[in-house]
Design the sequence.
């Protein structure tokens, strides 16, 4: 039987956090539960690998994706980082790329305004880092990003954000997209060229 810290990595614990994320209306509780899953799924050791698979098997990914719509900055941040860690599992990465990309892009500021929620810098950077993780080693997920009109927002952030951290994170995403040669024709048809993706930092 599990003992000590191993008790944290049991399916029952994952189910508990997912039920909190499903049922709670309290932003602090939601942030804490998402943060717990974020911590349990971090890193490359055996238990975190197990947790990433368990969250998928317990149908936790849709629960997290839905919380990207939260009006709470801290909930969006905690959920984004949790999804980033969970996408280290390749099956999760495919699912998150298919079903979360639109919500992630909606949380990015556009040229006219910060996102409608006016998310803090730390949260925008977290969302950008999550997108980067999802499209790394997955041209299919990069294609999803293009289809959600994400390039426009990324280019705007990389060229006009007042935050060096946001600029850097957006630039990393853009460079990753341009690295997929098979996507360049589609990008160029949309009016983009290499200069939009190779941003000087």
Sequence:
């Amino acid at each position: 039987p599990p003992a000590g810290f191993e008790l944290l990595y049991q399916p029952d614990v994952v189910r508990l956090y997912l039920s909190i994320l499903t049922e709670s209306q309290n932003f602090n509780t939601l942030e804490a539960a998402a943060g717990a899953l974020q911590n349990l799924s971090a890193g490359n050791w055996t238990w975190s690998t197990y947790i990433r698979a368990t969250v998928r098997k317990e149908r936790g990914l849709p629960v997290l994706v839905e919380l990207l719509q939260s009006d709470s900055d801290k909930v969006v941040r905690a959920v984004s980082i949790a999804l980033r860690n969970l996408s280290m599992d390749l099956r999760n990465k495919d699912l998150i790329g298919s079903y979360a990309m639109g919500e992630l892009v909606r949380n990015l500021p556009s040229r006219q305004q910060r996102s409608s929620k006016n998310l803090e810098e730390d949260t925008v950077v977290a969302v950008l880092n999550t997108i980067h993780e999802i499209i790394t080693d997955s041209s299919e997920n990069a294609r999803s990003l293009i289809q959600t009109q994400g390039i426009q927002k990324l280019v705007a952030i990389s060229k006009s954000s007042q935050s060096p951290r946001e600029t850097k994170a957006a630039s990393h995403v853009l460079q990753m997209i341009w690295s997929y040669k098979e996507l360049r024709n589609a990008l160029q048809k949309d009016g983009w060229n290499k200069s939009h993706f190779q941003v000087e930092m």
About this structure: Residues 1-88 form a domain with the Leucine-rich Repeat Variant fold (CATH 1.25.10.10).
